[in-house]
Amino acid sequence: MELADQSVLIPGGTSGIGLACARAFVAAGAKVCIVGRNTERGAAAAAELGPRASFIAADCAEPGQVERMVAEAAAQMGRIDTLVCSLGANFLPQLLFRQSLDDIQASLNQDLAPFLYVGRAVLPVMMAQNSGSVINIASDAGKIATPGESVIGASMAAIIQFTRGLAIEAKRNGIRANTITPSLVEGTPLTDRLLAEGTFAAKLFAKARPLAHLGPTTPNDLAALAIFLASPASARITGQAISVNGGISTN
Description:
Elements: E1 7-11, H1 16-27, E2 31-36, H2 39-49, E3 53-57, H3 63-77, E4 82-85, H4 101-129, E5 132-137, H5 150-170, E6 175-182, H6 189-196, H7 199-208, H8 219-230, E7 241-244
Helix pairs in contact: 1-8, 3-4, 4-5
């Protein structure tokens, strides 16, 4: 399906990478529904995107809200051709022995579970259409062991493997599923927090940034890849985890 004909659902689309993806899809002529917890920010983002965009308020860590959100989005747009999950990480890197068990539980509930909930909720809609593209935005932390990212990396690796499993299960229904895995992304709320709030995280990424000899990754870089993965040009690509990191690592 050409991008101009698509209806795109973007949980986490009210800021950062998700909003960059929403802008790219709207520019390509698609209808877009963005999802977030902050009603004021979501309404402002939808207004910026224009008449082909809408906003639904939902907390994707709550299964009941996810089911309601997907049903509402499908009713609004008539179908869901592409899902871009850009739900982001809510926790800063920290050495494992400094994290409480409650911190670990919260990280799994907020950083991992929403991807599983949204993917499962959207699947019946795409199966009924016999087509669809799922694009999950995780992190290179799911591929490379890094100090301070034991728990974050476990969640990101789980998202990658979940997406691969989804790709295998859903291919008979014409559904593709891929993961985009950035490293340090400039100009996002999370990176701003990493550099401003997390002493350990700031030191970690200060060492990583100079390795991006091709230039620091931006939200627009990830949006360009999301557009490709949603387009007919990637019709034979599924189950892949594609790094976009400016050369910080090769994996």
